[in-house]
Amino acid sequence: MPEPAAQRFTFKQRLILAIVPPLAYMVICLLGVTLRYEDICEPGMTPQYHTPPPLIYAIWHRCLLACAWRFRNANLHILISRSFDGELIARTVERLGFVAVRGSSSRDGAVGLRNLQRAFHENNYIAITADGPRGPAQKAKPGVTQLAALVNAPVGAVYLHPHRAWTLRSWDRFMIPKPFSRVTVAWAVPAPAEQQAVQSALDRASVLAESHSA
């Protein structure tokens, strides 16, 4: 199956792509240096920052901004669509040391899955928004478990919960941490490559983080 052709953008879109990502990067950096992260784990689990790759992580879409600063410069490979919005995100997060793997669970899922599989076999960390790109919110889709089954690996579940945040009225209830907020990073025991198991692990991580910040 051939790779899709590169996305062509209008002059206005190219102008936005030249301006917005560096500005967004600066905003994330200014916010990020004020945040204080704290890890909490289920019994038998430890934070996996220094666990050698390859590894697969699942997160909820609403945690992306808090994740962007916590996991910066970790060579984390993330699935991002080839759309204009995806290009904006890719150009922003690449400045933070992430690697954009192009594809989408909704438009060119087979290509995205194949690219993630290749990245895993090349010994990289992989992160997938289990409910992305359009929800329903906090409901795991098959993509992450399909990848885990292909590479015969478990799925790590992590949830980041800012103690103080603005919550948008978007489909995912996206969270923007307020400056100087504490952020709880909750780690659940990795789940097998089964959709319900991944859902359960993410639910447990969410409850663990939110109860810790209450």
**Average pLDDT, all residues:** 92
Low-confidence stretches: 1-5
Count of helical regions:
6
Which structural class do the helices and strands define? alpha/beta
Main sheet: which strands, in order across?
Answer: 1-9-6-2-5-3-4
Cα separation of the termini? 49 Å
Question: What would your notes on this structure say?
Answer:
Helices cover 37% and strands 23% of the residues. It is α/β, with parallel strands linked by helices. It has one domain. It is globular and about 50 Å long. Residues 1-5 have low confidence and may be disordered.
Concise summary:
The chain is an alpha/beta fold and 214 residues long. The chain is 37% helix and 23% strand. The longest helix is centred in the N-terminal third of the chain and has 22 residues, at 11-32.
List its salient traits.
214 residues; seven-stranded mixed beta sheet; two-stranded antiparallel ribbon; 23% strand; disordered N terminus
